[in-house]
From TrEMBL:
NCBIfam families linked: Rossman fold protein, TIGR00730 family
A molecular function (GO) term: hydrolase activity, hydrolyzing N-glycosyl compounds
The protein, known as: Cytokinin riboside 5'-monophosphate phosphoribohydrolase
InterPro entries: LOG (IPR005269), LOG_fam (IPR031100)
GO terms, biological process: cytokinin biosynthetic process
EC number in record: 3.2.2.n1
Lineage, highest ranks first: Bacteria, Bacillati, Bacillota, Bacilli, Bacillales
Keyword Isomerase attributed: no
Length: 193
């Protein structure tokens, strides 16, 4: 695994634990010589994870739409900043560059990014691991929702298990190393074949 995309908030969150854990992930990525691919901002959890990778001598690629870069929130010390035209292009570029995806706590944008990439995995558009770094139990309600989707038969268990969850960056990245994607989603059943 050479590059990991991280989806996360541009806010600090209500507790220092979010920034501290983002820094811990950044240090772990640098230690493993994994390049961070992220949204390119210098603020919030996004800035914290990028700063930690850079502080440890690691590589960081930021991908930012031009309308956000013009608001002067882009990180100025990245290994590389790629400016794109839209949010759609940002996500496509992150998906292209990354070998795996981690969501840290964030708002609707973070969840939207995670769900899109998770859905792409379910449809077989990529076979890369998707993980939730469950800092401060932030993703507990989402994990419960996945369980509810499975129970109500809107999500098969083999796809539910694609959402790798851990509270520690090193353990989550170890899960990435042994991840094996399930078979591609199909609507055919055995009776129809």
């Amino acid at each position: 695994m050479k590059n990991v995309a991280v989806f996360c908030g541009s806010s600090n969150g209500a507790s220092n634990v979010y920034i501290d854990s983002a820094k811990k992930l950044g240090k772990e990525l640098a230690k493993r010589n994994i390049t961070l691919v992220y949204g390119g901002a210098s603020v919030g959890v996004m800035g914290a994870v990028a700063d930690a990778v850079l502080k440890e001598g690691g590589q960081v690629i930021g991908i930012m739409p031009s309308f956000l870069e013009q608001r002067e929130i882009s990180h100025q010390r990245l290994s590389e900043l790629i400016v794109v035209d839209s949010m759609h292009e940002r996500k496509a570029k992150m998906a292209e560059l990354a070998d795996g995806f981690v969501a840290l706590p964030g708002g609707p944008g973070t969840l939207e990014e995670f769900f899109e990439i998770f859905t792409w995995a379910q449809l077989g558009l990529h076979q890369k691991p998707c993980g939730l770094l469950n800092i401060n139990h932030y993703f507990d309600p989402l994990v419960e929702l996945f369980n509810h989707m499975t129970k109500e038969q809107f999500l098969q268990e083999k796809y539910r298990s694609m959402a790798l969850v851990d509270t520690e960056p090193n353990r989550l990245l170890e899960k990435f190393n042994v991840y094996e994607p399930p078979a591609i989603k199909t609507y055919m059943n055995e009776k129809q074949t």
